[in-house]
Amino acid sequence: MLDLISRIGPEVGWIIAVDDACPEHSGELIRQHCKDPRVTVLRHPENLGVGGAVMTGYKAARDLPAMAVIKLDGDGQMDPALIPKLAGPLLAGRADYAKGNRFYRVGDVSHMPKVRLFGNTVLSFMTKLSSGYWQLFDPTNGYTAIHRALLDELDFDHIARRYFFESDLLYNLNQLRAVVVEMPMSAVYANESSSLRPMRMIGPFLRGHLRNFSRRLLYSYFLRGFSAASVELVVGFPLLLFGIVFGIWRWWASMAGHMPATAGTVMLAALPIILGTQFLLSWLNFDVAAEPRQPISVVLGGHAQGDMGADPGATE
Question: Do 43 and 162 belong together in one domain?
Answer without folding.
Answer: yes
